[in-house]
Amino acid sequence: MEKEVITVEQYDVDIPVYRCHTLVIGSGAAALNCACHLVNFGVKDVLIVTEELGGGTSSKSGSDKQTYYKLSLFGEEEDSVYEMARTLFEGGAMHGDIALIEASLSAQEFFHLVEIGVPFPHNVFGGFVGYKTDHDPKQRATSSGPWTSQQMFTKLLQQTRNLGIPLLDCHEVIFLLTDDEGHEPRVVGAIAIDKTKAASGLRSVVLFQAENIIMATGGPGGIYEASVYPEGHLGGTGVALEAGAEAVNLGEWQYGIASVKFRWNVSGSYQQVIPRYYSTDRDGSNEQDFLNNYFPGMSKLADRIFLKGYQWPFDSRKICNFGSSLIDIIVFQETVLNGRRVYLDFCHNPKPKAGWSDFRLQELSTEAYIYLKNSGALGDTPIERLRQMNPLAIELYLEHGIDLSKEPLEIAVCAQHNNGGLKGNLWWESNLRHLFSIGEACGTHGVYRPGGSALNSGQVGGYRAAEYIAHCYREITIDKNTFLSKYAKQIAAKLAVITKALCTVGGDGQDMKSFRREFQHRMSKAGAHIRTLSSVQIALQEAEDQYRRILNYEVKLNNPSEIVEFFQNRQLCLTHLAVLKSIAAYLERGGGSRGSYLVLDDSGEIIEGLGHEWRFRPELPELNKYTLEYRFCGESHLTKWVPVRDIPEDNFWFEQVWRMYQQEKIYGRN
Q1: Distance from CA of residue 487 to its chain's centroid?
Q2: Quick one: DSSP state of residue 338?
Q3: Distance, CA of 414 to CA of 262 (rounded, Å)
Q4: Which pTM does this prediction carry?
Q5: Using an 8 Å Cβ cutoff, are 235 and 573 in contact?
Q6: Mean pLDDT throughout 128-140?
Q7: Cβ distance 575 to 241 under 8 Å?
Q8: Which phi and psi (to 5°) does residue 485 adopt?
Q9: Is the pLDDT of residue 575 over 90?
Q10: Which residue(s) pair with 143 in the sheet?
Q11: 651: number of Cβ within 10 Å
Q12: Stretch 635-661: mean pLDDT, rounded?
């Protein structure tokens, strides 16, 4: 890495310029893994830039036992790379070759984590025993506890430090610099704001020149009001969209029940111990066991709460016949539509209504009772069962000031994961050459995905990007003098945007906090797990108007340091507009309820126990054979349906593969 300071005479300001071979934006598990692989491949000049080290989902997210999904590595149950690829591919709207890559490299990247010290458990024979997770036909899942991804982050961060990879913290990337000349556009650099100097206006600007850029900024969780993403984690998808990067499946998300005081997925053992659900008015009065109004009896209700453990994400296929995802709808109705607060009570079992029998473990389904028995969790109350099954799940909340043995846990249905994201090819490279997206920023997943497969995908994607860069993009193609002269006008135009935003300090217009709340509320109301075409179309019009307002500086900063929030809101506003555009395109095509969202339709099917307004449009299976691509072009929002690519057939003759590997033809070069 090189650093110099240039003077921009037009603005009478000195700006630091960092030059590196590959710039990694983000500092989660995917980013750090990619940086390590780059150096191990011989790309020594790597720089990591991040807005907050340890502030993302890798470090701050988890569940009762956060899952890592990989190929089965122990046991008599048969598995193979192709079996795993088929599981991923059959989730719908996912390319088969990407599925095959994620399956092929899953064991390699898993053992890489084991080797650097992530404590995945194994038995006395060294076997990494697995368990089933959601949408998983095998027992491929493993976990190192509630903080699996944090442990990955910690160990990978230590590796980057051991390798001497420099890291710039507190830098918010706000623009990508591109070159549109030649056959295909490419990235050449980036502009960021040093958040520690934000109050100094233009003097906080930092310039990066890079041969390659890795976007590892996580999912755009900041577009939602009801979100389990860590506070402050916003993603950077809009920065890439504005530069011309294409996206895919932006409307495909996962939503699920989560705690709101401390943002955490309330899945797995939190549900399997069968806590009591109840609601209150906003002031805590008028306590009601509201689920009792929708289920035919205590046994059915208790079983469905149990099933929420490994059927945690809202799933439109699990609402009929009193399915487990009916609970998510009722919680949404209670919180959003009725304006009440909903809690999980671990001190008491579910309470029966008049005419019901009391809660009894012996009256659970065979599946639920055997699971609890085998887990040694047959205590009299949910907290006793949780202490027997997973004491770490209790300790986790204690660390955040919540004692489940003494107080209830407030919950809501929250956005949890974006299955879509930026589009990448077989090497995770964008349509903008030299730009790669990995981790949740990259949209490799389809409609359904096994729980924990995102962690595998992030590790595999980082490895693939590093391998391609090392073999195909190792040479420096733009020297520093050419960079400063050729892209001077583009840099000046970006500085002009910053200057105009700073001119709004103390002026008229909407403030940054209410601006953000506006699009977040819109997304949780119209673009989350309950959708209608009419509400999405209205939301889309409102979103277009809001994005126009921030582009035209019809907003204000209270002080210069809010320049960071201005650009966060700008890219988030574009992202939420892109997501709504993708949802609208899907619904206008006739798409119905699938994955983690329900599409309401007055002429649709009835949900047992709910009113007429809860009729839903069934899934249109043929759309699972396509991905939906999105591109922001000028002022246009373009969508395109693309047939999925099948899983490549297993006709790889060793000698031919060996020859192509030696000649580096596997990278698509002649």
Answers
A1: 33
A2: S
A3: 13
A4: 0.96
A5: no
A6: 92
A7: yes
A8: -85, -45
A9: yes
A10: 67
A11: 6
A12: 96
DSSP 202: G
- Cβ-contact 599, 447 below 8 angstroms: no
Evaluate whether 230 touches 60 at the Cβ level (below 8 Å). Answer: yes
569-588 core/surface letters (b: 16 or more CB in 10 A; e: else) = bbbbbbbbbbbbbbbbbbbe
Tell me the one-letter amino acid at 119: P
Phi-psi region at 79: left, alpha or beta (left = phi > 0; alpha = psi -120 to 50): beta
Read off the pLDDT band of 9 (50, 70, 90).
confident
| Spatial CA neighbour of 220 closest among 520, 444, 427, 447 | 520
pLDDT digits (tens, 9 = 90+) for 298-357: 999 999 999 999 899 999 999 999 999 999 999 999 999 999 999 999 999 999 999 999
- Reduced to 3 states (helix: H, G, I; strand: E, B; else coil), residue 327 is helix
**Where do the domains of the chain lie?**
257-416, 482-617
| Alpha-carbon dihedral angle through residues 494, 500, 502, 503, given to the nearest 10 degrees | 160
- What is the rounded distance in angstroms from the CA atom of residue 425 to the CA atom of residue 299? 48
| Neighbouring C-beta atoms of residue 619, cutoff 10 Å | 18
CB 70 within 8 Å of CB 111: no
Q: What is the dihedral of CA 666, 667, 668, 670, to 10 degrees?
A: -80
Q: What is the dihedral of CA 465, 27, 237, 568, to 10 degrees?
A: -160
The span from the first CA to the last CA of the chain, in angstroms, equals 32
pLDDT in tens, 70-95: 999 999 999 999 999 999 999 999 99
pLDDT number for residue 619: 96
Match domain 482-617 to its CATH number in 2.40.160.40, 1.20.58.100, 3.90.1150.10, 1.10.260.40: 1.20.58.100
The residue type found at 179 is D
Q: Sort residue 639 into left (φ over 0), alpha (ψ -120 to 50) or beta.
A: beta
The tokens for 350 are: 């579910």
Residue 670, pLDDT score = 39
For residues 204, 476, 53 and 231, what is the CA-based torsion angle, rounded to 10 degrees? 80
The Cα 121–Cα 48 span in angstroms is: 31
Place of tokens 């209700």: 301
